């Protein structure tokens, strides 16, 4: 039983998603945060990034918690005079 619990805890992300300059992570809810441990994100939690006004998102807008870590490619926000908001 201990090994099963230990395995399950290693599958969760124990750090929040990576922060990005000129943008933020958009949460529709916090139901994917592990109960009683608000700093632990459940396996397969997918979060969406958005950029501030006048910035455009480059790369994927989402990050997924998989095998205890967030995706390798962190999106970024680049200045764009033609973009009002995302």
From TrEMBL:
Presence of the UniProt keyword Disulfide bond in the record: yes
InterPro entries: Sushi/SCR/CCP_sf (IPR035976), Sushi_SCR_CCP_dom (IPR000436)
PROSITE patterns reported in the protein's UniProt record: SUSHI
Residues covered by the Sushi domain: 11-79
UniProt entry tagged with the keyword Metal-binding: no
Keywords: Disulfide bond, Sushi
Name under which the protein is recorded: Sushi domain-containing protein
